[in-house]
Amino acid sequence: MTNPPEASRASDLAAFLDHTLLKADATRADLQKLCDEARAHGFASVCVNGANVPVCKGILEGSGVMTVAVVGFPLGAMSTAAKAFEARDAVLRGADEIDMVLNIGAMKSGDLDTVLADIREVVRAAAPSRVKVILETGFLTRDEKIAACTLCRTAGAHFVKTSTGFGPGGATVEDVALMRSVVGDALGVKASGGVRTADDARAMIAAGATRLGTSASVAIISGASKEPGPAKGY
Question: Which of 210, 224, 216, 225 is nearest to 44 (CA)?
Fold first, then answer.
């Protein structure tokens, strides 16, 4: 997988950013603003809940900005069949990429066959759209992170991703570097959760991230900072 160009200026970071809005109370006006910002700044994508894919896809038509849908979000505890259906439906509605949540309980139980099958079925259901697998690294030991990355590669996923932004921890430079070391150049690595400044973004890219998920995209490329709000999320 080819790495994006190095970002020396804050504005150069735009191509790395999945501009994210996953709040339960997101309105049509919020989605319009999200997409307008993504189009204006040239972000890689907008990342939204499945129900909002058609709205964003329509707004972004002709812009070159992708629409990404989350699947099994944020717990990863849905059945494989439910995740596969959700992924297939999102792609039919226009999703260019799928960000699915790993079966964390199965991973913690050492049930690697279930984890592998879960990812593989979503990858099949989402084709030809690409799939990122959210490991929710805050729940996992180092060995579990390594095993999860290996399973993602075996299952045909296209990216490994750190966090939902709703779990016990967000992206860390150490986790991104570890994930990159396991997947090599075969998969992308997405850092998400707590990426709020241009310095945060550059640190993640230096560690091996090829995509960044954040709701602070505009602040990042403007060189400003975004203070964490009261609610969890990107």
Answer: 210
